[in-house]
Amino acid sequence: MADREYTEAELKALADKAISQPLVRHIYTADPSAHVFEGKLYIYPSHDIEGGTAFDDDGGHFQMRDYHVLRQDSPDGPATDCGLALDIRDVPWADRQMWAPDAATRDGRYYFYFPAKKADGLFQIGVAVGDRPEGPFKPEPEPIAGTYSIDPAVYADADGAHYMYFGGIWGGQLQKYRDNAYDAAHEEPVGDAPALGPRVARLSDDMKQLAEPSREIVILDEHGQPLRADDHDRRYFEGPWMHRYQGKYYLSYSTGNTHYLCYAVGDSPYGPFTYGGRILEPVLGWTTHHSIVEFDGRWWLYYHDSLLSGGVTHLRAVKVAELEYDADGGIRTLRPYG
Ligand code: FUB
């Protein structure tokens, strides 16, 4: 459901059928990255605000300036706002637009990863460090070398290695890069050309650097061919997430302008991944962005929609719904409004 005005009757009909409710209502939250730390659920969302900038295809209306962390004892219980975790005024390199974050832990410390635009207008990804899952986090003075674009998602593999996935096209600027080099002339590929994929790189042991240059992830179709650029219902757009289920790696992501959450399955954190299907049909609001987490043996999809604000795309609310797998490992598609 793309950005437009909704009538009271339309909004009420959707609210009546919604499969889940906002985790919190006192602030707008989006792009939830959920993890189990210290036996509780910690959710790392964007903190949406009204920045006064009109809707455009580059996401200029997403003018976020800080982060709050949410905590739940269980996915079907209430959420607590743990307060301010990081403010843009404390990040020397960041100028504006603090978009979707994530977090990870290693050796008792917590690492908060976030994208922001620098003064030159380019997105990069930074890290901030804290002693508690909810922060506060102290930012490193420079962004992480070798990162660019948006939407970091950090996956802890079973062997202890951590991988950062990142990248988003259009406003996220991923289409401006090839082989990790920027060129303003580059655009999203079109037609039968292979679609762009997200990037992945292993993190260094101190969790503050990429241990290797990022590489592009390939998503294959049912014939083993890379998804085509004009396959907008399935191609990668933004919001990568990685989880493991029954020994397989599941890359999930948003298709952006077609508004689906999809997944693809592989045998390595680097891929390749084969397209598996849809996780979530479109929500109210332009963007879709999610995470998937296991808690007490059940699987949960954290996502957002814009119902709380009456359909304003940049004023979203985080929600959670239970995910189910088929016997063959396929994820059953959820319909956000029944
Ligand atoms: O919240 C700003 C941007 O919108 C995120 O970075 C994207 O994933 C989309 O949800």
TrEMBL record:
<dbReference type="InterPro" id="IPR023296">
    <property type="entry name" value="Glyco_hydro_beta-prop_sf"/>
</dbReference>
<dbReference type="Pfam" id="PF04616">
    <property type="entry name" value="Glyco_hydro_43"/>
</dbReference>
<dbReference type="InterPro" id="IPR006710">
    <property type="entry name" value="Glyco_hydro_43"/>
</dbReference>
<keyword id="KW-0326">Glycosidase</keyword>
<keyword id="KW-0624">Polysaccharide degradation</keyword>
<comment type="similarity">
    <text>Belongs to the glycosyl hydrolase 43 family.</text>
</comment>
<dbReference type="GO" id="GO:0016787">
    <property type="term" value="F:hydrolase activity"/>
</dbReference>
<dbReference type="InterPro" id="IPR052176">
    <property type="entry name" value="Glycosyl_Hydrlase_43_Enz"/>
</dbReference>
<keyword id="KW-0858">Xylan degradation</keyword>
<protein>
    <submittedName>
        <fullName>Glycoside hydrolase family 43 protein</fullName>
    </submittedName>
</protein>
<keyword id="KW-0119">Carbohydrate metabolism</keyword>
<keyword id="KW-0378">Hydrolase</keyword>
